[in-house]
Design goal:
18 strands, Aspartate Aminotransferase, domain 1, globular, binds pyridoxal-5'-phosphate
Length: about 550
């Protein structure tokens, strides 16, 4: 319980405040303790300051550092040297490095204290009587409180991004930095222990036998499809091989089908979940099952597809199922993680994903030993030996540095999903009076949404959606249409033979109405309220026409 509270405190956006050495040195320990005992802010000092403080307080500040009350800004030596060459002091180098991490963070240095002292000229006499140390403390306290207010004021108009990766990465900065340094030093850059360890941890997290790291989510899909083809006795699929998928997905899903040699067939989505509709799949298969070999359901925006129905259909028609889990790592159906239900799960570690790397990356998950073995081959040019390919493979390995960073970030996935679900709950409560205007994400019983995106449906359609979009932009609220063109409308795919499996009326309708709004797990309560209020304001000034 205590740990959970600590973790909750840790995964919370806090106002970053840097206190320079010549200020911090002058504060008494008891005042320093008071200053940093603040849940809303996090305090940084430089590694140079910590040395001075150790000497001054005889290691008594250890506990403040261990509890994360004081954090260290530790610029790389090269950075300090470069700054010294530009006639900056090492301490200023630390300050500049802090600015690199937090553009709008608060810096409290000697200049600020002097300025404040000037402003408070009148009180100088009084301060002299109270003694210099107390004096600095009083001034510092005032500066901190004024700077925090100023910071909060600025935040009220600062753009709320769809996702601000810096927030989360700054919270786990030290862990990431350590892993990068270790990786840099030991030169194990291709596969090896780091990739093995991450694959094991991911398999354990998902509850699946094998995970295999590859270069991207797109490659995960291509390699999964190729592995299926190889298992079925073909090197590549042929044009006659049809694979059913949804038109509401990123282009990579269809691109992968075509790259594996097969033909995508777009089947309509469910109007409530926006995921591929099992009824429509069945309808299509009932009429025209010829050539269909598999289904790729995509858990769009992080909501699981109706996998129970999809697996039943697959069994009935003898089809394979490859789950495109790119947007939904961590989502569950009755406690079972998506990506473990079909024959293969495909995951993307694109930086904005639920588990995002610091670059590209992907993985496949499967309980099928043969598929796992083929994918391992395919990612390394197609052979167990690098020099004798058994299949036409790819150079598609997960980078060791990505694997090691993903392993750090995996520990936080569930907590971040929980935070996103809390934000979704706040949106639901805050927007409940707009039921006649908006449809909010629907979560069927037994499913856990992972909210890669929070996507609303503007009931009045395209024109009002466009106006809402512009209104949000003007008010500094990030938003995006995922996706501006559904795949059945992409000429390239049609030219290459992609087919349309029945009426796509739900897709047509939904494509004109969807809009995603920010769901960064570290949004503050104030930011969530701001999003809600701006949406409400828009609709109160856009009355429904009868
Ligand atoms: C549904 C879906 N499939 C596939 C991909 C491709 O993943 P990547 O960008 O890692 O290649 C993405 C990522 O954007 C996606 O959202």
């Amino acid at each position: 319980m205590k740990n959970q509270r600590l973790e909750e405190q840790r995964l919370k956006f806090k106002i970053p405040i840097y206190i320079s050495q010549n200020v911090i040195e002058k504060i008494d320990l008891k005042y320093l303790r008071k200053l940093v005992d603040d849940d809303k802010s996090e305090f940084y000092i430089s590694c140079f300051s910590v040395e001075k403080l150790y000497t001054k307080y005889k290691k008594k500040i250890n506990d403040l550092i261990k509890k994360g009350k004081i954090k260290l800004i530790n610029p790389p030596t090269e950075y300090i040297v470069a700054q010294i060459e530009q006639n900056e002091k090492p301490e200023i180098a630390a300050e500049n490095f802090f600015k690199l991490r937090y553009e709008d963070g608060i810096i409290i240095n000697k200049e600020k204290i002097i300025n404040k002292e000037k402003i408070k000229e009148k009180e100088k006499e009084k301060r002299k009587k109270e003694g210099r140390k107390k004096n600095i403390w009083v001034i510092l306290k005032e500066i901190v409180s004024e700077s925090v207010k100023e910071f909060q004021e600025k935040r009220k108009t600062k753009k709320i991004e769809m996702l601000d990766l810096k927030r989360f990465h700054n919270l786990i900065y030290d862990e990431l930095e350590l892993e990068i340094k270790k990786w840099l030093c030991d030169t194990n850059y291709i596969l090896g222990q780091r990739v093995d360890d991450f694959e094991k941890e991911l398999a354990n997290y998902l509850g699946v036998k094998h995970c295999i790291g590859v270069a991207s989510g797109t490659d995960a899909l291509v390699l999964a499809l190729r592995a299926m083809a190889i298992k079925m006795g073909k090197e590549f699929f042929s044009h006659e091989d049809k694979i059913i998928t949804t038109p509401l997905t990123f282009t990579a899903t269809a691109i992968a089908i075509i790259r594996a040699g097969a033909t995508p067939v777009f089947v309509d989505i469910d109007p409530k979940t926006f995921n591929i509709s099992p009824e429509k799949i069945e309808e299509y298969l009932h009429k025209d099952p010829k050539g269909v070999i598999g289904i790729i359901p995509v858990h769009i925006y992080g909501l699981p597809c109706d996998m129970n129905s999809i697996m039943e259909i697959a069994k009935k028609y003898n089809l394979f199922v490859i789950e495109d889990t790119s947007q939904a790592l961590g989502a569950e159906i009755e406690g079972k993680k998506v990506g473990t239900i079909g024959n293969i799960g495909c995951h993307s570690f694109y930086p904005s994903k639920n588990l995002g790397g610091l670059g590209d990356g992907g993985a496949i998950s499967t309980n099928d030993d043969e598929i796992a073995e083929i994918v391992r081959r395919l990612r390394e040019c197609g052979g167990k030996s690098r020099f004798i390919p058994e299949n036409i493979g790819y150079n598609s390995r997960l980078d060791a540095v990505q694997a090691t960073l993903l392993k750090v970030k995996l520990k936080y996935v569930d907590k971040l999903i929980e935070l996103k679900n809390k934000i979704a709950q706040k949106y639901k409560e805050g927007l409940k009076d707009l039921e006649h205007e908006l449809e909010l994400p629907y979560i069927p019983d037994g499913m856990k949404h992972s909210f890669h995106q929070y996507t609303i449906k503007v009931k009045r359609g395209e024109e009002v959606r466009q106006r809402l979009k512009e209104f949000l932009e003007k008010r500094g609220i990030g938003n995006f249409i995922y996706y501006p063109v559904f795949l059945h409308k992409i000429q390239l795919f049609l030219k290459l033979g992609a087919q349309i499996g029945g009426s796509l009326e739900n897709s047509e309708d939904i494509s004109k109405k969807i809009l995603s709004i920010p769901i960064d797990p570290l949004l503050t309560d104030e930011e969530v309220s701001r999003v809600i209020n701006v949406i409400k304001e828009f609709f109160s000034s856009t009355p429904t026409q009868s």
